[in-house]
What does this fold into?
Amino acid sequence: MLDFYYSTMSGGKSTALLQRRHNLTSIGKRVLVMTSALDDRFGIGKITSRMGPQCDAVLYSRDTVFDSTLDLGDVAELILDEAQFLTGAQVRQIHENFCARGQRVSCFGLRSTFQGLPFEGSAALMAIADNLHELSTLCQCGSKATLNQRIDALGHPVRSGPEVEIGGDNRYRPVCASCFHAVSR
Ligand SMILES: [Zn+2]
It folds into this structure.
């Protein structure tokens, strides 16, 4: 079973991941948490939410191969954070080598880039996950936020640049379509 939990930045993704892990471990299930080596905001291999709790995570990179060389033993559920950074090939490996053989995998990630384009990993997950779960938050105007706006130090929108620029949640804000395009309804 492959589940994809998607959200915007500051959309409660890490909190939901930590809650999912807590729910499973509290009934005696073994869980393996992995996160992308690309994201070191909170220190290498840590999942941290604004609420405080955190857990250690094993790192994956774009070179990680998700097959039987990754020994899952008695892991009841593999949880992957920052799943937007998976390649499409890695999502297909997870789907075929793990999920199709009965392994539960839950992926947590951002749906789209700051330019409103799909991340590679998220596009693949949207296409083949068994279950899609939207974790929603609010735009500053009160509408549902569906997009991530990158902002500069003065809070002005940034519309070009590299897809990945990690280094602080304060460089992004969750916004609705109207605020993203700076038009009024
Ligand atoms: Zn808005």
Q: What stands out?
A: The chain has a mean pLDDT of 91. Residues 34 and 64 are 11 Å apart (CA to CA).
